[in-house]
Amino acid sequence: MNLLKWALIALVIMLIAGALGFTGVAGAASWVAQALFVVFLVLFVVGLIAHFTKGTHA
Question: Could you list the residue range(s) of the whole structural domain that residue 44 is in?
Answer without folding.
Answer: 2-54
